[in-house]
Structure to design on (65 residues):
């Protein structure tokens, strides 16, 4: 049915633009890139990465002692 096809295409476009990360866009969604949210997201990811590494080092030091 044409209505079913339109709904499936709309669902795909929504997924592609708002949920699927694109390696060529530095693992951002097209919507994040388009609406200029990319820098904020990348800074948050970097902050989380630094915190995770710091926590892992602390746990490793505690186990080594």
């Amino acid at each position: 049915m044409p209505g079913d096809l339109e709904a499936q295409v709309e669902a795909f476009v929504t997924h592609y633009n708002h949920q699927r990360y694109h390696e060529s866009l530095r693992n951002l969604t097209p919507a994040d890139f388009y609406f200029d949210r990319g820098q904020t997201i990348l800074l948050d990811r970097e902050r989380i990465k630094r915190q995770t590494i710091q926590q892992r080092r602390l746990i490793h030091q505690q186990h080594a002692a």
Remarks:
- The chain has a mean pLDDT of 95.
- The chain is about 75% helix and 0% strand.
